[in-house]
Amino acid sequence: MIALAKTGFRAIVPDHRGYGLSDPPPQPDKASFADILTDLLNLLDALQIAKVFLVAKDFGAWPAYLFAVLHPERVLGVVTIGSPYMPKRSTFLKYLPEGVYISRWRAEADFRHLDAKTIVRNIYILSSRSEIPKAAENQEIMDLVDSSTPLPPWFTEEDLATYGALYEKSGFQTALQVPYRSLGEDFNTTDPIVKVPVLLIRGGKDYSCKFPGMVDYINSGMKEFIPDLEIEFLLEGTHFVQEQLPDEVNKLILTFLAKNV
């Protein structure tokens, strides 16, 4: 946000329902990706903003792509970090190895016996590795992290305390519902083509690069659905590349925005 604001952009970062300081949805077990699309459209209308660039990370990428498909007149361009565009989210499921955290976290077992700060700590440690976080049949994902394992050097104890306090307030019910329990939510759009410019930024050491077929799809499959597509791999980047390498990510984003404003 700071990097964008310094160059004259207005940066708006809403908390999704049930995340951070945002109130949970009235029925958390029925929350969906559609809520994000509705909230984004209403936010732009409320602020009287005609067109925007969308910048999204991880599970936020899919609603960003989809918003550009459904409302191209409101979008100047899209920057996504990590997640490729697959028009049918159910397609994504076929790339997941057995035991991977995305499938396991559709149940709450990993989150019942640990406090919020420990959960956030473990997620950041797992996400800083290049190995896929996947557990054996009788193992939980959180068991993959030893309590003595240090935080990644780019994620401080202050960061952990802040994130842990936010999740202590919100809990994980909505975070498990969206995205993990909503992965099969398909919108069945008649025209799935993203017609605005898109920049995809990925860490070269992101564990999802090891999902079977994922890199091939990114390099050769996405262009079918996004004609104006740029892909940038930061070779040393891991899953949270925007926190690990903020200067490099900011430079890529600002260059893309300058070309398409």
Please characterize this protein's 3D structure.
This protein is an alpha/beta fold and 261 residues long. It contains eleven helices and four strands, in the order ααβαβαααααβαβαα. A four-stranded parallel sheet has the order 1-2-3-4, with helices on both faces. α3 (61-70) links the parallel β1 and β2 (75-81). α6 (116-127) packs across α7 (157-170). The longest helix is centred in the last third of the chain and has 15 residues, at 246-260. It is globular. The two termini are 17 Å apart.
Tags for this entry?
alpha/beta, globular, four-stranded parallel beta sheet, 4 strands, 261 residues, single chain
Low-confidence stretches: none
Strand order of the largest sheet: 1-2-3-4
- The separation of the N and C termini measures 17 Å
Shape: globular
The helix content, as a percent range, equals: 25-40%
Query: Strand content of the residues, in percent?
Result: 5-15%
Question: What composes the largest sheet?
Answer: 4 strands, parallel
Work out the number of β strands.
Answer: 4
The helix tally amounts to 11
Rg, Cα atoms, Å: 18 Å
What class, by secondary structure content? alpha/beta
Give the ordered list of helices and strands.
HHEHEHHHHHEHEHH
- The pLDDT mean sits at 92
